[in-house]
């Protein structure tokens, strides 16, 4: 939570920096909001926020004008003032946003807004990529793009492979072995979901974002994990004025121990903002080697004199090195184009 009080920043230096010219610090004068109530944003719907205060009250709020442009997204830690009772027809004011620990982003790729970066979710620490093993067929390219987005965001990734009753997970898992991404395999059996306990364990104590294409069984999992998902979001109904949450944006759902953020509208990630160096952060073993690369090396398969090629060719990479490099380059290539 922001501690900055009157400066509206987490950065203590802003307050203690000597003020040589005796003028005011170069920050906007604004009410102190020292009494702002800390909360987490659970849902955003047409400019209205639902936030859960740290003492467990779901409050509806709108953003204070002084916060200016820039989005407040699901997962943001915010400060609320005004009516924070959470009673029907009340509206608090969201007056500050804390620095984010992680930011899951996408770059718009349609012609009109191309290049515009959007934050989808803040402060989540795990991206769960839900993929069916069959019906619909798995889309490795889409999975790769999700993994790139997770690395870029600074989040851990988890593969959740559904419908194991329809196909053997082994071939799919083999493709991802060099990436050392953990995986959970699920299947619906009569009145229960095999693998659900393991998934639960993986989600415990974490804030996890679930992404997946239509039909992969994501809703089935969310409903099993959070039996009354719509009540769990504490009054989103009052925000939308409708019977249920119909927005296509992300929504945070509470687990007994942790959060699941469902992203009904997110089918893919525009990755134009992710550079080779961003991706390398997910491959510390390769990152070290690239220190020997020529300046501006793209590390792609056709990059001249890329040190990664020599690393493999000379045997320095060891047994799994070639597969690691291939996987890295596959993700590198997955950044461009859509799926
Ligand atoms: N055979 C099999 N079918 C499953 C499994 N999990 C879900 N399904 C079925 O797959 C279909 C799609 O499941 P949903 O949970 O609605 O999928 P979704 O990913 O939420 O899709 P949208 O609601 O379109 O976003 C439904 O008919 C489910 O009953 C599974 O493990 N095995
Ligand atoms: Zn290189």
From TrEMBL:
Q: Where is the CP-type G domain?
A: 113-269
Keyword rRNA-binding among UniProt keywords: yes
| Pfam families associated with the record | RsgA_GTPase (PF03193)
**Residue ranges constituting the EngC GTPase domain according to the UniProt record:** 122-267
UniProt remark on cofactor binding: Binds 1 zinc ion per subunit.
Arranged from A to Z, the UniProt key words for this protein are:
Cytoplasm, GTP-binding, Hydrolase, Metal-binding, Nucleotide-binding, Ribosome biogenesis, RNA-binding, rRNA-binding, Zinc
Q: What does this protein do?
A: One of several proteins that assist in the late maturation steps of the functional core of the 30S ribosomal subunit. Helps release RbfA from mature subunits. May play a role in the assembly of ribosomal proteins into the subunit. Circularly permuted GTPase that catalyzes slow GTP hydrolysis, GTPase activity is stimulated by the 30S ribosomal subunit.
Subunit and interaction comment: Monomer. Associates with 30S ribosomal subunit, binds 16S rRNA.
For this entry, the protein name equals Small ribosomal subunit biogenesis GTPase RsgA
**High-level lineage:** Bacteria, Bacillati, Actinomycetota, Actinomycetes, Micrococcales
């Amino acid at each position: 939570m922001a501690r900055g009080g009157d400066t509206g920043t987490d950065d203590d230096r802003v307050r203690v920096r000597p003020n040589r010219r005796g003028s005011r610090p170069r920050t906007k004068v604004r009410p102190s909001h020292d009494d702002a109530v800390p909360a987490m944003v659970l849902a955003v719907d047409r400019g209205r926020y639902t936030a859960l205060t740290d003492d467990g009250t779901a409050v509806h709020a709108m953003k204070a004008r002084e916060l200016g442009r820039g989005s407040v997204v699901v997962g943001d830690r915010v400060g609320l003032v005004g009516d924070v009772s959470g009673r029907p027809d009340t509206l608090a004011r969201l007056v500050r946003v804390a620095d984010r620990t992680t930011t899951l982003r996408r770059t718009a790729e349609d012609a009109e807004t191309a290049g515009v970066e959007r934050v989808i979710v803040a402060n989540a620490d795990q991206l769960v990529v839900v993929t069916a093993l069959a019906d619909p067929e798995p889309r490795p390219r889409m999975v790769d793009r999700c993994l790139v987005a997770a690395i870029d965001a600074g989040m851990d990734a988890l593969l959740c492979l559904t419908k194991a009753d329809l196909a053997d997970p082994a071939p799919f898992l083999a493709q991802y072995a060099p990436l050392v991404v953990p995986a959970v395999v699920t299947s619906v059996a009569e009145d229960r979901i095999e693998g659900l306990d393991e998934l639960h364990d993986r989600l415990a104590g974490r804030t996890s974002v679930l992404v997946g294409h239509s039909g992969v069984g994501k809703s089935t999992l969310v409903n099993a994990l959070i039996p009354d998902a719509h009540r769990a979001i504490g009054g989103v109904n009052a925000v939308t004025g409708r019977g249920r949450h119909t927005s296509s944006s992300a929504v945070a759902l509470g687990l007994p121990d942790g959060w699941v953020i469902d992203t009904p509208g997110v089918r893919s990630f525009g990755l134009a903002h992710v550079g080779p160096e961003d991706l390398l952060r997910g491959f510390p073993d390769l990152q070290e080697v690239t220190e020997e690369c020529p300046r501006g090396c793209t590390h792609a398969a056709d990059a001249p004199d890329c040190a990664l090629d020599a690393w493999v060719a000379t045997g320095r990479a060891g047994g799994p090195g070639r597969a690691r490099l291939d996987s890295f380059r596959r993700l590198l290539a997955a950044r461009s184009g859509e799926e």
